[in-house]
Design goal:
This protein is mostly helical. The protein contains 5 helices and no strands. The protein has a single domain (20-139), classed as Hemerythrin-like (Four Helix Bundle (Hemerythrin (Met), subunit A), Up-down Bundle), CATH 1.20.120.50. The chain is 76% helix and 0% strand. It starts with 16 loop residues before the first helix and ends with a helix. The mean pLDDT is 93. Bound molecules: fe (ii) ion (FE2) (2 copies). The site of one fe (ii) ion has 4 residues, from helix 2. One fe (ii) ion binds next to helix 2.
């Protein structure tokens, strides 16, 4: 499977240490899945890693929403809607692991999941998280 690890780069840094640490941790969770996919890991392993990644993502989203709420960030509702949309996409992928019975189905689903994980986090940081940075910095 030609799915490569995602590499962290400083362009993803927001300069808010707690948030940057959580983003790096989520990136590692995505990479765990990508590596298991490349190694053709069994279905239980893949679904377990995905489940863990969703739990960590949900915890990060809640922490981020609380922080934005504390600072009365005007884009909070739209931001939360985007978090909910991403979690729903991840949950939909996870649910499909229950219906897989054939090896080729599993490889297709794994590839689809890895492609999703490769893009969603960095796209979200760039497009949705970055705009709150100057807002929080101005308040500081
Ligand atoms: Fe976010
Ligand atoms: Fe975030």
């Amino acid at each position: 499977m030609d799915i490569s690890r995602i590499e962290w780069s400083d362009e993803f840094k927001l300069g808010l240490p707690a948030i940057d640490a959580e983003h790096k941790d989520l990136l590692e969770a995505c990479n765990q899945f990508i590596e298991a996919a490349r190694a053709n890991a069994p279905i239980g392993t893949l679904a377990g890693i995905l489940e863990n990644m969703i739990l960590r993502t949900r915890a990060h989203f809640v922490a981020e929403e609380r922080m934005l709420d504390r600072h009365d960030y005007p884009g909070l509702l739209a931001h939360k809607a985007e978090h909910d949309r991403l979690l729903a996409q991840a949950e939909t992928l996870k649910a499909r692991y229950q219906d897989v019975s054939q090896e080729d189905e599993l490889r297709n689903l794994t590839g689809e999941t890895a492609t999703f994980l490769q893009t969603w986090l960095l796209d979200h940081i760039r497009t949705n998280d970055r705009p709150y940075r100057p807002y929080l910095m101005n308040l500081a």
